[in-house]
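Appendix C reproduces, verbatim, an entry submitted by the partner laboratory led by Prof. M.T., so that reviewers can inspect both the input and the predicted structure.
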Amino acid sequence: MAWSKGRGWFGFRSAVPGIALLLMITFVGLGNASAATTHYISKSVGSDSNNGTSKSTPWAHIPGMAGATSNAASYTPVAGDQFILYGGDTWGSADLGGVNLTYSGSSGSPIYIGVDQTWYTGSSWTRPIWNCQTTNCGDNSATFSNVVWLAGNYLTLDNIEITGYQCDDGGSIVATYGSNVIVENMYIHGWSRTGTCGQPGTNNPFAITMAWSNFTNEGQGNEDLNNVIDGSDSPNLDFMGGILHGNIVRGNVVRYVYDGMNGLFSIIDGNLVEYNYVSLSGDHCNMIYPQNTFPAGALGANTIQISNNVVRHAGCSGGTTIFVLSNCQSGCNNTAKTAYLFNNVLYDNEVNSDKGFSIGGPGSNGKFYYYNNTVVTPSGYCMQNGSAGTGTAYYSNLHCITSSSGPCNFVNGTCTSGGGNLLQSAAQASVNISTHFDHYTASGTYAYTPVASTNSTVGAGTNYTSTGSFTCSTFPAMCSDSTYTTYNTTNHTAVSRTANSRPSSGAWDIGGYQYNNGGNAPPNPPTGLTIVVH
């Protein structure tokens, strides 16, 4: 099978499937007339010569694994098939060698590669593990070797731990090339580099990549959901990126990488991005860096939604926190593009002057709606643009904690306030609640939530249920407060806060939270109690 290597958008290298692979994807399933089947896969007790259709007769590999033989290798998956991996089992580098999932499901009958949490080894369920054992473990017959190739359509990859990947030249850990592909609940960690990987003048890999060559036909319907990408146990933190390009990217935890999210997106929602590092190759160390909108994505070709994200602990020189629509390539008309940003929480981000929301670049001339955000920066503005951008920012219900003289500074653009904003210094925001109204800090369960009904953000905002061009009818999620994702480090899962509705009438709270419906507020006392005296 031949693969060619080229240059992707914005200087990122991407692999383009060869003709043989495209034909395989197009005609997949034609040689298999059987109905959808559930197959069970266990490295420890399975055999590829089994029929694979029961937990007592599992295969050792899924079709597409390099180590697959016999029945597992000859089987052609069909729409609706499920491949259930034995929880707690480990597949090594010889089993992997590039997991080439080139087959396709169909609408309503995707092919599922994942787990049944009632089937596992040990005392309790844990994810199945694909361990590269400090090797590249990609498809070494390709010039650009990824560990997992999701090259079909209507595929779901779920709840697998991938560790031990060592980058020697290029390639990503999970790369999607089809449409309607879901990558969810993965735990990716423990990577390293050798050879030329990450060196100056080379391209860095990403843990999850959506790579394509045809914007119209590829990537539509793709989602990255609730994945954990955590480099805290990795020996090299200066070459791995989190997520490169995505249609819908929601509920992920991305930490200890040089670049959290970068490229083209449609929806970036409910993610936790923290602890970025300087790249060895000299590339930017950004947190969330949507350079452009995803063509014909979930919101259309010219719109992007960035909401409910927590971005914190950025500290590398030259990086950005949330940098929106920064690049517009040849032929791109960024004046037609619109970004909607709401319920985001940004704090403890000391990256030069880009500590809050930023736009910049020659094409950043669209419209930017910033509503219901909480931004904390000891210095600098909560919203700003570079001298090249001339876009217009509409902001409202912004809780901006800064020593700066104002919340917004667009050098050549326009800042338009819709009201309901609160500008505070760090001292004003964190005063002792026993003597003053406010106590906004990072130490609560959810950072910078109001802790009392007397806090200055409570009931002081603007209600956008049906006001203006950015309303609940167009963006229903804006009428709830922040989902604020946290990280369960015991089982390595992303955990989202339950959102609270904003009132349909009356004032909203300023910032990312509604105090009266939740936040850090203590529970209300029970009602209807009767005192019985004995």
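The helical segments are 19-27, 70-74, 93-96, 426-429. Additional entries are available on request from the coordinating office.
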